[in-house]
Amino acid sequence: MSLQSLSSEQLDILRDIVGSDHVRLDAADLEQYGQDWSKLYDPQPSAIVLPKTTEQVQKIVSFANEQKIAITPSGGRTGLSAAATACNGELVIAFDRMNQILDIDHANQTVVCQAGVITEQLQQYAEQEGLFYPVDFASSGSSQIGGNISTNAGGIKVIRYGMTRNWVLGLKVVTANGEILELNQGLMKNNAGYDLRQLFIGAEGTLGLIVEATMKLTRPPKELSVLVLGVPEFSAIMDVLAAFQAKLDVTAFEFFSELALSIVTKHQDLQRPFETVAPFYALIEVESGSEEEQEKALEVFEYCVEQGWVLDGTMSQSQQQAMNLWRLREDISETLSQWTPYKNDLSVAVSLVPAFLDEVDAVVAAAYPEWDVVWYGHIGDGNVHLNILKPDDLDREAFKTRCGEVSQSIFELVSKFKGSVSAEHGVGLVKKPYLAYSRSQSEINFMRQIKQVFDPNGIMNPGKIFD
User: Which of 45, 77, 425, 436 has the fewest C-beta atoms under 10 angstroms from its C-beta?
Assistant: First the structure.
């Protein structure tokens, strides 16, 4: 794809739509808004435009479609698949100014918000209203609702609450020709034909731009306790999961390796949870609103120790301790970012995770015997994150090439185990070459046809998911 550029006349039209201050051309802005956290591709947007209203988005998209200007949407830019990276002079539409919570309906437990609302902003607003928005992840302080929906973000509480998709009751979308679609009207039950809302969830901005969403809320959880347990072998983690789920309401179940713990405690001023060193660690969050439930959690922990599934462990005794234990897991991704890791975001059925991880680990160990490979993930829903750290003396492109070669072997295992090459990070540019390991050719062909219907001129985030 050739590098797109905008004429002075085209830039003037964009300034007339959003105001001169909200069309950015400075090199620093182009770099900031032109890429996500993956940082595996050089950002080269032609311009950044920051609309304030749905009407402004509609005018920008209509103009872009008329002029055949490619568009890349930009939310909080916390993605890891380069879905929000503009590599070919795309016009970046950033939603930072569309950050208002517009309405709340206590009877229906729903809230209407613009696409640029920060995840944490919605969480805090729900809490103030006596409700709870449960989708949560390390980037909640900067990720935006529109981006979360466009990538169907998962996070740390999927085992209890599901993915972002489960909490979207309605969408307002601007299609490639500038038409506004209002999808599902915030209804809990609506079987009147195809549910087009679901097409836009996880579409990474390739079908249209989400400008507004009706999100479902729920009751706040009871008091939460967090346990971190040292586990002697990975297969034992699955026994621990089963034991806790049988007795308690588990809201999160995470794992990380000893290398991950060593790195995060060294670089984030955090203490190890206990002196015992284990190959793997399980972090478990449970509802413990009563003394009886807290005692039950300790009983399950002791049972796991007796079975040899756990070497040592600790349980939070206060909210601050719970937060500190969570940081051992949640700060891993941010800590690893200094090494520009090559990330694989994989999933298989929960019961198959130990066998899958053993086979992947063997491939990785053979391919990168001298490189640091860090494992962590949302083990309760079958999602594991494989992070290969770039050696300081290795060129970025050479590193990416080597990792890509071995990724093919890893994705062949994903296909063997009937899993996904992208559990929650999306496809973007990073996973595009490997889509066929998770989707049949027939599925991909239907995806292309859907794309053609909604975006016949191919302006909406072109080159992402598939060419």
Answer: 436
